[in-house]
Inverse folding.
């Protein structure tokens, strides 16, 4: 009997039925008796100090129970970043905030809170609190915040919170050796996660006198620790439960409202309190993707050799450190992972400013650096008159390259295959020729094609801790309860992880039972959903637990039937003879016996915990075809394809869906999205009408292919995929626009306005601005 | 101030004394505990709260509860068949892999179902236009549009599987 492989099958998500029926409970859907409602008082300036509050009118609002000011809550400083705790104090995230503050560092900062019987009463009270401020100068950009006379945004440290340089070789020499030096300044916007479910958390005192926090979080175990730290409580006094969550994309990898929810419940003697952010709050006052400015010099020879890359990076952190320099400082390693060059200098500064705090967002710094890199790489190909694909094929790192910047050997690194198979599947040549012919008609629009490549790590090793646990319980009917701390946030992790367990156990996919809720009290430790880590890191834990469980089941069968264990295999839930496939017994019978056999009953639980010290580098590219309206600057995306080198694809249906979502997010990044501020640091478009999230009308059909291999290290031959799709679409679109109109625009999003301006500027005679 | 209204909810005649300031979304979630309908923005931008009112897709967050008086309303809890079997559009969403985080899905499923009812046949471009009021951040819409196309193709192939008409809807 042949083993039925479940890895690689397009299994349906186990939770899809509940979701199409409206049966899936998200944090805000649980019926909780006598629920109170917490609302946050947000600062209406971007930088300053609250000198006084007048709450007298607010207190009179019927239904208002308590108004909290910063002094009413613990003053413990903490970091909201969803990183594992570090035993070395020096390596910890910067702890620069308290739950409520009088020191206003961003517009919308949390300066007070109201607890009321109804959301409406809480809202009315907020509008009646009178706040007086001392106002300070507002710094919107790193350059402004770095000025010599700039005030410190946090008294304890310089506005430049970190400054690093990585690289190799002599960049100055490399630039001298070049036939051409390209010098570019590139800018990326403040992108918003815009998950459909806003942040929501409910906290209450449980029967055991501890505090339970139900939250829409990507990182339940880390959330527990941060809630405890902020409130000055022992970690074990907090229990976090994560039900279904309506998207996160990194925003819920920061612990934003949960500490305050628990503090509010404490203030109310343990009664349940819910904080449910509005769309406007979620967009402007939580976390964002760092806006990063790049100053790039690239040296290239006529034959296509890259002699030098000097990239100076200014990362706009916003008011609080959150993930801080981990994002802006990240690029050098992955530039080196992607392209050969004689010298590299990647110098990065992360700077506090008075815009919204930037944190983790899908891609974690890579969409920014890949945008900058792939614009300049494409322009370099143009400069020497080489085809952009040929230029990348000439310069990409080979399979097996040892990346000295991350001490990682890039095994099974298939960027070359992506760059060959992608253009073929996309019909690049035909599309390019068609565009040329189209443009010859000299109509009001121009067409073009563009490409961009990327590299991406799997999980955080060697920079971060990578640990995960799994537990399998054999149930009496032969099915298995799978318990993991790895977090389902909509990406399909639970389904992929169940496939892994089923595959290793040798049982049908349907035999694995998951849970909608991740519970820090009962689920094994895992740091959570980020860094495209879960199928990789949790995959090892699941494989270990499943192998242990499989061994236990076979041992029982061996003892029962007096057949040596190595002569038996588990296939599709049956225990069969290895030599001829004959049925010996079933997992179900062994399960029954393990519960109820008078003599031998002993239930089976397999537990594992892993600490992973390896990383598998993934790669890929995007191909784009656009049409640009010369009169309006409007770009129409005609086609978009992503090509991924992500090792073995665990579930092709889910993988394709995830890639398409990432492509849409990056197309939005390139074309429409960006939170904008006025001079006073007030967000201008924190709603879904003015913040241009792509709709069905803004996207073409999205296409993807996988250059599928088996990664030698990944637990099931797999490596990162979750964030990868967001890396290269934006620069591919920019390069396609350049191909269409002959102008390379170095600031995204490429709104009609910016394209129009760029076209006008290119038309203007030299010397006239 | 409360006002008593009578309407049809998922095929059942119901009465509710509702705060006149409440939205339909709030009434559905708070008074009827139908939490399948989600709030994504509260101001009619995202479509997560879509319900069907007398055969039209409506954002329930910007529709006053009292306006429901005399209307027939279908929520996500009401589109499966009477025996609990999934409606064809629900099954198509699963088969096409259109579901990820699922928060937009109730609104998306209802909007898609109504779109199918309103058109004997649908092109991809028509599906795109028909669902343009429903936002999704996970899928890039690709597999959602696939799902509607799949449901459309299935009903063309077998007219008996035509999506069941909603309860007593008068156009």
């Amino acid at each position: 009997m042949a083993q039925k492989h479940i890895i690689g099958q397009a299994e349906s998500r186990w939770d899809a039925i509940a979701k199409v029926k409206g049966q899936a409970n998200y944090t805000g859907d649980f019926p909780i008796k006598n629920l109170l409602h917490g609302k946050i008082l947000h600062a209406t300036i971007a930088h300053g100090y609250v000198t006084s509050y007048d709450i007298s009118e607010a207190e009179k609002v019927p239904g208002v129970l308590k108004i909290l000011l910063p002094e009413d809550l613990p003053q413990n400083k903490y970091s909201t970043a969803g990183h594992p705790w570090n035993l070395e104090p020096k390596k910890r995230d910067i702890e620069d905030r308290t739950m409520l503050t009088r020191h206003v560092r961003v517009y919308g900062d949390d300066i007070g809170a109201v607890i009321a019987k109804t959301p409406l009463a809480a809202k009315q009270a907020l509008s009646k609190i009178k706040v007086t401020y001392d106002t300070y100068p507002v710094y919107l950009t790193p350059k402004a915040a770095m000025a010599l006379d700039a005030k410190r945004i946090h008294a304890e440290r310089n506005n430049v919170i970190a400054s690093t340089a990585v690289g190799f070789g002599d960049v100055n020499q490399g630039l001298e050796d070049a036939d051409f030096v390209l010098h570019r300044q590139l800018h990326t916007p403040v992108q918003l996660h815009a998950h459909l479910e806003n942040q929501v958390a409910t906290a209450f005192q449980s029967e055991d006198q501890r505090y339970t926090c139900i939250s829409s979080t990507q990182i339940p175990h880390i959330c527990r620790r941060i809630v405890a730290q902020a409130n000055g409580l022992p970690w074990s006094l907090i229990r976090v439960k994560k039900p279904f969550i309506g998207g996160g994309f990194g925003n819920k990898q920061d612990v934003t409202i949960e500490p305050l929810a628990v503090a509010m419940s404490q203030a109310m003697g343990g009664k349940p309190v819910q904080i449910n952010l509005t769309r406007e709050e979620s967009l402007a006052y939580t976390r964002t993707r760092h806006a990063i400015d790049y100053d790039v010099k690239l040296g290239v020879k006529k034959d296509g050799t890259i002699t030098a890359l000097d990239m100076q990076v200014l990362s706009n952190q916003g008011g609080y450190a959150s993930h801080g320099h981990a994002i802006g400082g990240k690029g050098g390693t992955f530039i080196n992972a992607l392209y050969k060059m004689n010298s590299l200098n990647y110098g990065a500064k992360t700077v506090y400013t008075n815009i919204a705090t930037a944190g983790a967002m899908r891609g974690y710094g890579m969409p920014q650096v890949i945008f900058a890199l792939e614009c300049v790489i494409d322009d370099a190909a143009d400069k020497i008159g080489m085809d952009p694909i040929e230029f990348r094929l000439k310069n990409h790192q080979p399979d097996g390259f040892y990346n000295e910047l991350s001490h990682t050997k890039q095994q099974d690194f298939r960027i070359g295959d992506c760059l060959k198979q992608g253009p073929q599947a996309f019909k690049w040549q035909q599309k390019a020729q068609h565009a040329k012919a189209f443009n010859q008609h000299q109509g009001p629009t121009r067409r073009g094609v563009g490409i961009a490549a990327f590299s991406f790590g799997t999980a955080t090793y060697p920079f971060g801790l990578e640990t995960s646990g799994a537990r399998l319980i054999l149930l009496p009917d032969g099915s298995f309860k799978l318990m993991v701390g790895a977090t389902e946030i909509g990406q399909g992790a639970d389904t992929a992880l169940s496939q892994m367990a089923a595959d290793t156990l040798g049982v049908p996919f349907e035999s694995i039972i998951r849970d909608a809720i991740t519970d820090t009290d009962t689920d094994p430790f895992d740091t959570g959903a980020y860094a495209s880590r879960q199928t990789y890191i949790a995959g090892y834990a699941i494989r270990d637990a499943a192998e242990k469980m499989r061994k236990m089941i076979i041992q029982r069968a061996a003892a029962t039937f007096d057949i040596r264990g190595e002569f038996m295999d588990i296939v599709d839930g049956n225990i069969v003879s290895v030599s001829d496939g004959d049925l010996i017994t079933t997992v179900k019978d062994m399960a029954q016996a393990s519960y109820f056999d008078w003599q031998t009953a002993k239930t089976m639980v397999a537990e594992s915990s892993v600490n992973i010290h390896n990383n598998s580098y993934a790669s890929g590219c995007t191909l784009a075809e656009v049409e640009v309206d010369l009169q309006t600057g409007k770009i129409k995306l005609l086609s978009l394809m992503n090509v991924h080198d992500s090792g073995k694809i665990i579930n092709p249906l889910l993988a394709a869906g995830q890639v398409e979502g990432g492509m849409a997010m990056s197309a939005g990044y390139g074309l429409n999205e960006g939170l904008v501020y006025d001079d006073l640091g007030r967000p201008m478009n924190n709603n879904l009408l003015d913040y241009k999230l792509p709709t069905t009308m803004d996207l073409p059909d999205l296409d993807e292919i996988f250059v599928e291999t088996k990664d030698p290290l990944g637990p099931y031959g797999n490596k990162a995929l979750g964030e990868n799709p967001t890396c290269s679409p934006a620069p591919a679109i920019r390069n396609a626009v350049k191909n269409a109109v002959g102008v390379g625009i170095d600031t995204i999003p490429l709104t009609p306005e910016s394209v129009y301006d760029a076209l006008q500027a290119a038309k203007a005679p030299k010397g006239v601005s | 101030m409360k006002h008593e209204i009578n309407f049809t909810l998922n095929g059942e005649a119901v009465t509710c004394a509702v705060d006149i300031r409440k939205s339909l979304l709030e009434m559905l979630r708070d008074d009827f505990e139908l939490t399948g309908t989600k709030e994504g923005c509260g101001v009619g931008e995202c479509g997560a709260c879509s319900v069907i009112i007398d055969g039209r897709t409506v954002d329930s967050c910007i529709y006053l509860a009292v306006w429901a008086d005399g209307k027939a309303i279908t929520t996500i809890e009401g589109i499966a068949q009477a025996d609990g079997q999934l409606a064809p559009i629900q099954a198509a969403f699963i088969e096409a892999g259109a579901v990820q985080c699922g928060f937009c899905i109730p609104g998306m499923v209802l909007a898609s179902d109504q779109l199918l009812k309103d058109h004997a046949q649908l092109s991809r471009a028509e599906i795109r236009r028909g669902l343009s009021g429903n936002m999704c951040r996970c899928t890039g819409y690709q597999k959602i549009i696939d799902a509607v196309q799949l449901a459309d193709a299935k009903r063309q192939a077998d007219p008996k599987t035509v999506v069941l008409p909603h309860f007593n809807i008068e156009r």
